[in-house]
Amino acid sequence: MSDMKSGSPLFIDTVGGGLASLAAGVARHLGHAGATAATSSELVAVPGEVLTALAEIGAQVTSVAHLKDVKPTGEVVQLAEWSLYLLAPSEGELERLSAARIARDKIERRLSPSSS
User: Quick one: fold of 10-110?
Assistant: First the structure.
């Protein structure tokens, strides 16, 4: 995988864990079985569109821990540096799903061995 230097990356977001769970799910789908997700926000909330976007590629959602409770065993990936986003629950369902699919595809391209 182009950006991953370890088999157990920890993906961190600051917005409830949705992006971290999405990234860890994609990473596991691509062969990083030890990929984990964490958030630095107080609330953990993985939106339904993340589950849908992962299911579309045959991947599964990963649980999200609070960052303060995690001890990294591999590379730490701050997703804020990857220009990814999910939309707020107040946005339309199709728009939220579209944003999740775009984020998933960006993550997949970034982690794919062929993107080196």
Answer: Rossmann fold (3.40.50)
